[in-house]
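Comment thread on ticket #2218

A.B. wrote:
> Attaching the input chain for the structure job we discussed in standup.
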Amino acid sequence: GSVTAGNTTVCCYYADTAKVWAGVGAGNSLAAGSISGYNIDLKGYTTQVGNLTAVGGLTASGTDLTTGTVSAANATFSAANALTTSTISGANVSLAANTFATGNLTASNNLTITSSAGYAPNGVALSANSATINAVDDISVLGNNGGTSLTANTVSLNSSSGNVSAELTNTSNLTINGDLDGNGTADMEIKLLGTNVANIDQGDIFGG
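C.D. wrote:
> Ran it. Output below, let me know if you need it in another format.
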């Protein structure tokens, strides 16, 4: 069933934390409907829940995490394997996983995505003031991936051993880190400061 923490009959939730936990060892699972509260702390090896609504912070961790729509001032997800969600929105959104299957991701401040493999979303709209994507393998944020888009003023794309491909909208500060010698450590950085990415075309090529 659903979980509601605090009293909302007057105006708002009490500033407490709803802890919904299951064992984090293999074979332990957590299943619930929607969860709402001021702060939410969600934990389980395999977790499958409905919509999550937190006035303050939301933290979710485990091996395989599956949720519905997420709304929180600050949302942090950490999945050792797979993260599957509907849309996520908040002031600050941080996601870490091996594989991702999410809806649109919207952060009014910072959006951070960290992948222990590659990151190539399909049909996902990413929007933030500042967006950072870290991956071990390829990063591909392209419109031909089902209409995927990335809209952010500041963008940082960091791959330790893969290729980086992205189509950006309204970006004025871009940083790209890459691995030149294949040792798994980024040793190249390109920064375009105060440059409208939309003004860069095929004639603007840097070679070396």
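A.B. wrote:
> Thanks. Noting for the ticket: The first strand starts at residue 3 and ends at 4.
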